[in-house]
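Make up an example, fold above all:
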Amino acid sequence: MVTAHPTSEYRLLLASQSPRRRELLALLGLPFEIAAPDIDEAPLAGESPPELAARLSQAKAQACFNSHSIVIACDTIVAHEGQVMGKPRDTDEASEMLHRLRGQPHSVYTAITLLEEASSTLTDVAETRVVMRAYTDDELVAYVASGDPMDKAGAYAIQHRRFAPVSEVQGCYANVMGLPLCHLARCLRHWKIRPLRDVPNACQSHINHRCAVYPSILNSK
């Protein structure tokens, strides 16, 4: 069960320190605050990538629970051949991940959990299929040396203009950045909260990517 809120009565709390998620959430035109969740992100035995993303987003929401806010928590998982690829611990691991992904398809899952109180919670999981381009060894080395891969699942940023690691995206592009905005807008409808901006247009303009899937996302329940 969820509670409808007039626009003037709710507060949104983003349970994330990710600058990419802050940038994307700001595109809705809604005010929000930031909190830093502190949870154990280790996967459980037998847990699938979407199950892991959902559980971690729920744990982050609970960790940042505030009775005066609607918490938005996210977790993004990169999975290649069924194996979870988290944030690299060092440059060697970043290089190894990028070598494995080069020229290969993989899946990116982002779970969004909205939490207001124990009886007002909702989790949605978005999946995007991504195909990496065949970048050269020199390009890989230069990208790792830039430091950009170190705080990103799978050791890459899809939006990095110089490295441009991706050749094909099947699904929501913003999902790969960590916050599928149309999925979030669809979730917010359960609280009768509507963005102050046209979400598909704002998102496509910000990421410079034409999206073909937003109608099916926004029109589904």
Remarks:
- The longest strand covers residues 105-117.
- Residues 49-63 form the longest helix (15 residues).
- The chain has a mean pLDDT of 93.
